[in-house]
């Protein structure tokens, strides 16, 4: 969100008050205010304090600095001390004891090798220093407490002084009500790239972008995101850091856009909390962030095999399902999981959590027959209940749905007629929903595709817990996926739990696996999907998947075959579509050969993939890695977004052209092509490769040594 008019002025509709001088500092013991550690508290006024008269009619920001883990420093900024009723992300506290020092000119808090230093009685600014080197900071007038007067008639609103921050006065001298925002700006070192913010499908390097972290159901070709994460990672030359903004409500980032050498972030309300996380490498930063937000969970080994879906709006019944499975096995294509999409339930009744008896008259027998073939079974669910569903009446009568402010059930016709939304802040609603799923597990279902969770009301909405709807919006997916995942842990065992989730937020890596949402059956959408996945992998997540062949439209044989290669060299691999079945023989015979070859290739690589998955979970880093993450010292990798490392040793460059042409980059080292056996020794400068591949191959290299 932009508040300024160029570098020097503010926009007319905003009163921007910045701390100009820190006039007092103190140590706060952690038990006093329930912080993660002993804290440094600094009070800073919105004008300079030259005499006692300057202590009148002036606003101030209360800044509290603390540390939940080594090399991690949290900063809380408060204008007025109000409870915003936003849900709080579940952060891990490592019980560190930071060093705090207060002197006449500077106050510092040090955690590990990271130090925050704030100037006292001078121009207010903050420096973050890692191993004695400044990595970022909040410069003079970067912090701000902002009143938004755009809802008022500006010509009739008088304010005493936009510099001193006096009260905003109406025509009769009464205090006017305004929207309020808190802002911080952290400087960027020259030549640094910014990554992250969750699953973003635009340019991989985020410099110059405006980003709002609000979960939306916008497909993979727009600026919207299913998985918005208020975290970014940047740095250079062995000194890297991440910034995590601990706000569940939508937060706006200006990434070197509004002020070109800073990242600005702001949120509505009277407070703002963020963490700076420092490390020697991008991996160490992402690892520390991953651990701070709950760490990762290792999915069961069977989830890494091939998933086959009924697709969405296709016609399917037991006969169709068994013909697909038998067809795959007859063609020597191993399948690990069969997925039933939406129409396992009757249309217009999603979700009723009951099998459509016309298409599936014997669901228990069907599930047993699938298990007898060695398959696991996944079924689609979502947290919305259609008015036609028998569950709607129960949920309405018992108060299990999100409501309007007038007490009526919040409904709309998007997706299904009269949809209501399950309110997971209500413990009874959560238990009810879990009970519905337990019935399916008792039948033989093994896991769930937890679809949706993004279109959650933010206005005229009341949650059971009384939470702020703006904060509950992004947090909804956390409650939803957690409820389903914990049920699976309880019923299937902790080592067997897995969901296939679309939406996500901070800490979502605890409930794997996530996939990339509704893409198109086009080559550019392959690239969009991969960019989104690599951005998510730069944001603390460990596992990721995507719809092989694209979700929308009919896939051409070439799209299907190229996406099959890409999909079976991803963390998790699932065929899925909208209007078209995704079994290979419906495309051409070569598609059968491609599917067989790359399914078997992934199974042959499973000892490597699964061991790398275990190491990734333990380290808190992604299995599918952007190139810069594995080769941070090689500047040529900084912007690469059409190739990736699968673990530490395997490089994958999916082919995204009709003709089979592909450009990719090999970093310095000795590499062996896994499919054709070539060995290439690359000098310290790295090498760009331009090659052409048929459908039975692609750039797939193993790093030797």
Task: Give short descriptive properties of this protein.
41 strands, 27% strand, alpha+beta, 705 residues, Immunoglobulin-like, single chain, globular, six-stranded antiparallel sheet, 3 domains, TIM Barrel
Largest sheet: 8 strands, antiparallel
CATH homologous superfamily assignment of the largest domain: Glycosidases
* Shape verdict: globular
Give a count of the beta strands, DSSP E runs of length 2 or more: 41
Percent of residues in helices comes to: 10-25%
Low-confidence segments, ≥5 residues, pLDDT <50? 153-176
**Terminus-to-terminus distance:** 48 Å
* Number of separate helices: 12
SSE-based structural type? alpha+beta
Radius of gyration: 27 Å
Physical arrangement of strands within the biggest beta sheet: 4-5-6-7-23-20-19-17
Overall average residue pLDDT: 94
Which architecture of the largest domain does the CATH hierarchy give at level 2? Alpha-Beta Barrel
Domain Glycosyl hydrolase family 31 C-terminal: 620-701
Keywords: Glycosidase, Hydrolase
Domain Glycoside hydrolase family 31 TIM barrel: 297-612
EC number: 3.2.1.177
């Amino acid at each position: 969100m932009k508040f300024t008019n160029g570098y020097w002025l503010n926009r007319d509709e905003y009163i921007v008050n910045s701390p100009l001088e820190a006039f007092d500092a103190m140590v706060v013991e952690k038990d006093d205010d329930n912080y993660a550690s002993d804290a440094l508290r600094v009070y800073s006024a919105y004008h300079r304090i030259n005499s006692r008269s300057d202590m009148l009619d002036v606003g101030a920001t209360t800044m509290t600095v603390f540390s939940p883990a080594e090399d991690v420093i949290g900063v809380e900024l408060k204008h007025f001390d109000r409870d915003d009723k936003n849900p709080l992300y579940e952060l891990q506290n490592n019980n560190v004891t930071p060093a705090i020092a207060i002197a006449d000119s500077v106050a510092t808090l040090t955690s590990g090798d990271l130090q925050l230093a704030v100037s006292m009685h001078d121009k207010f600014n903050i420096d973050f220093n890692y191993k004695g080197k400044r990595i970022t900071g909040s410069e003079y007038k970067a912090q701000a407490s902002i009143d938004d007067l755009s809802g008022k008639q500006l010509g009739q609103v008088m304010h005493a002084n936009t510099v001193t921050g006096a009260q905003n006065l109406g025509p009769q001298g009464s205090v006017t009500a305004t929207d309020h925002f808190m802002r911080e700006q952290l400087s960027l070192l020259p030549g640094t790239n910014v990554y992250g913010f969750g699953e973003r499908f635009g340019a991989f390097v985020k410099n110059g972008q405006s980003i709002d972290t609000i979960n939306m159901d916008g497909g993979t070709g727009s600026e919207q995101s299913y998985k918005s994460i208020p975290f970014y990672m940047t740095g250079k030359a062995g000194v890297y850091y991440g910034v995590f903004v601990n706000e569940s409500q939508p937060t706006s980032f200006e990434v070197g856009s509004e002020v070109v050498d800073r990242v600005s972030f702001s949120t509505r309300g009277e407070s703002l909390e963020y963490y700076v996380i420092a490390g020697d490498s991008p991996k160490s930063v992402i690892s520390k962030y991953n651990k701070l937000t709950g760490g990762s969970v290792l999915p069961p080994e069977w989830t890494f095999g091939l998933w086959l879906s009924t697709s969405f709006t296709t016609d399917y019944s037991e006969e169709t399902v068994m013909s697909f499975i038998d067809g795959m096995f007859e063609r020597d294509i191993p399948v690990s999981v069969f997925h039933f999409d939406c129409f396992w339930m009757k249309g217009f009744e999603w979700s009723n959590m009951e099998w459509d008896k016309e298409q599936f008259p014997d669901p228990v027998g069907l599930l047993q027959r699938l298990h007898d073939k060695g398959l696991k079974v996944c079924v689609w669910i979502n947290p919305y209940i259609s008015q036609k569903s028998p569950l709607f009446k129960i949920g309405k009568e018992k108060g299990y749905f999100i409501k309007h402010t007038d007490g009526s059930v919040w409904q709309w016709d998007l997706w299904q007629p009269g949809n209501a939304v399950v309110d997971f802040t209500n413990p009874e609603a959560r238990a009810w929903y879990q009970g519905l799923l337990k019935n399916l597990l008792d039948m033989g279902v093994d896991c769930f595709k937890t679809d949706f969770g993004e279109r959650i009301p933010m206005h005229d909405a009341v949650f059971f817990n009384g939470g702020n709807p703006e904060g509950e919006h992004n947090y909804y997916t956390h409650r939803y996926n957690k409820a389903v995942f914990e049920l699976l842990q309880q019923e299937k065992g902790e080592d067997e739990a897995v969901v296939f989730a679309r939406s996500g937020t901070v800490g979502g890596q605890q409930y794997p696996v996530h996939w990339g949402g509704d893409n198109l059956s086009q080559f550019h959408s392959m690239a969009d999907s991969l960019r989104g996945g690599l951005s998510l992998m730069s944001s603390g997540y460990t596992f990721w998947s995507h719809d092989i062949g694209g979700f929308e439209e009919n896939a051409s044989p070439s799209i299907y075959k190229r996406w099959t290669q890409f999909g079976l060299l991803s963390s998790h691999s699932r065929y899925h579509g909208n209007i078209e079945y995704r079994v290979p023989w419906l495309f051409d015979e070569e598609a059968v050969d491609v599917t067989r070859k790359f399914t078997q290739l992934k199974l042959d690589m499973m000892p490597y993939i699964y061991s790398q998955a275990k190491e990734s979970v333990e380290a808190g880093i992604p299995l599918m890695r952007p190139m810069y993450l594995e080769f941070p010292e090689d500047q040529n990798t900084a912007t690469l977004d059409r190739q990736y490392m699968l673990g530490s040793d395997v490089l994958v460059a999916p082919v995204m052209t009709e003709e089979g042409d592909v450009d990719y980059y090999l970093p310095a080292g000795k590499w062996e092509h896994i499919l054709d056996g070539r060995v290439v020794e690359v000098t310290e400068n790295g090498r760009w490769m331009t090659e052409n591949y048929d459908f039975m191959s692609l750039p797939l290299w193993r790093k030797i040594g």
